[in-house]
Amino acid sequence: MSNLTIAAKDGGSFSSYIALPENVTQEGKTAPCVIVIQEIFGINEGLRAKCDWLASEGFIACAPDLFWRIEPGIELSDQVPEELERAFELFGLFDIEKGIEDLKSTKHALTGHANSNGKVGCLGYCLGGKLAYLMACENDVSASIGYYGVGIEELLDSANNISGKLMLHIAGEDGFVPKEAQAKIHAAFDGHAQITLHDYAGMDHAFTRVGGDNYDEAQAQIADERSITFLQENLMA
Fold this sequence. Notes:
Elements: E1 2-7, E2 13-19, H1 22-27, E3 31-37, H2 45-56, E4 60-64, H3 81-93, H4 96-111, E5 116-125, H5 127-137, E6 143-147, E7 165-171, H6 179-189, E8 195-200, H7 217-236
Parallel strand pairs: 3-4, 3-5, 5-6, 6-7, 7-8
Antiparallel strand pairs: 1-2, 2-4
């Protein structure tokens, strides 16, 4: 586990946390890559743990600091009121288009990584779930996974460009993705050949965030097992 510096398309550079599988580091083998896309809390301990989990499952996992243009290196918690307030402030300041550019730069860096097998996917949470969806719509990754992505219902037409695979985890009682939004997503994507939707009845936003108020271990495990199988099928085959 270490940091990887990535050159930005429009100048400058940003840091990312990268975790490699043991067989890659010990034997010099190659593996598929997964870009882990942050929530509004930066590259904090919880997100680094997600990268470590993916590395334990055989993937090179890299989480780029997408808030670097506002405040590089920020780490926040949803359990501290002042930090939660700052996180929402950062969300309001964040430039989605620049974020997508930085994710594409991350993909470029990972494709050329010495231990990469050349296949790259995305997995994101909340804001990152939306960005993972957009990366799939940009037709820039082989497989993309969004956990409780916000605002996707406003971007449904973008899915016309998808040629890779997309999986969305939808929390049934998500306070940030209301029932009406969920219904729009289902109406647009049910039966879509490239898109798989999973609903989690009774779950609220961030039900897979360990230590969060809405964390549910059993449902998080189900979602994560689905994600690993999905990534294996589309990046390891």
